[in-house]
Fold this sequence. Notes:
This protein has helices at 2-23, 28-38, 49-76, 81-141, 159-164, 167-261, 281-342, 345-357, 367-384, and strands at 144-146, 149-152, 155-158. The chain is mainly alpha-helical. Helix 2 runs parallel beside helix 4 (81-141) and helix 3 (49-76) packs antiparallel against helix 4 (81-141). The chain is flat and about 155 Å long. The model has no long low-confidence stretch (mean pLDDT 82).
Amino acid sequence: METTNAEVIELSLTKTIETKLVQSNVTDAVLIALKEKYGGMKLKAIDDKESYLEIKVAARECAKVRTLAVKVCKEGREEAVKVQKEWIATEKRVVGKVAEVEDALDAEIERFDANVARLEAEEKERQESAYINRQAQLTKMGAVYEDGSFNLGSASFEASLIKGSPEETWSESVLPKFQAEYAKIAAIELKKEQERVAAEAEIKRQQDEFDKKQAEFKKQQDEFERKQQEQERIDKEKQHQIELAEQKRKSDLQSKRFSLLLPFNPSGTDVDMANLWNLDEEVFDALLQTKKKEFETNQLEQQRIAEEKNNAAIELAKQEAIKKEQQRIAEEEEKRQAELEAATDKTKWAEFLKEVGNVSFFDMKSTQYRAKMTAARTKINEILGL
């Protein structure tokens, strides 16, 4: 019973497909008629355009039937997988029958088109080759290409005419005009060459006469130059002595400044140590002071760091000894004051400097007090230098 139903469904599906195709006028009769009408069409000749156009019309008719069949079959096979398979099979069958005709027609169309393209390419290649040869001929004669034309004397032809003219026109009309102009120009150039040779001969005669006079003048000039060179030698020697003196001055100045700056800038940081002599005196003095201050600041910073490391260890002992030290200092101060009362001014001054030299300096955080500390250090250094 199930087999009978499947057969019924298949027959019904086939009937439905055939009905759809018949409704769209895609029938076996149409396909047979299409093949009978167009199946044997061929080009009468490779260049026969009339039969070519007829074949193109036939191909369009086949394409209409093929397109319609594909459309109907695609719509029908969307209903179900089995229906889809049946429609696809029908599509292939119908399209295959159409292709039997259409492929042959397309082959004939392609054969015609290929032949037309080949002939066009051959003609284009022939024209290009001829144009290259014609260009070479004109260029060799001296023709100039300008504003789309080749020009030589009074002969002027557009490049399109040079390229497209038949060989007969080129050989009998165009080329002879360029050759005539070339002959005129060549004659003029020959005359110019003859005049040039004559002019060169006259110039040579004049040059020979001039060379004779020049030789006499050179003899006199050589004697003058000898005396002049001797004077230049004397002047150069004097200049050499001056340059040696200048080099010595630079060397001495370099050595002096190097020895002054090196203690405060041993690594040469930010300074061209090899050209210190080239600096103005004020610039060098400012540089020296800057590096000196940087060096002192660095030394103080290192001392401060060292002191910070030591302070923690000795602070306790310092506090324990402070009272004893204060008593010792008081006793020594009393003794020193007594000695100063009896000492000379020189001794008192030395003691004063000693006390001033013991003044401690501190690193200030604010700009105001940093400037004050720097000024105080400068004044104390001035006092110590008295």
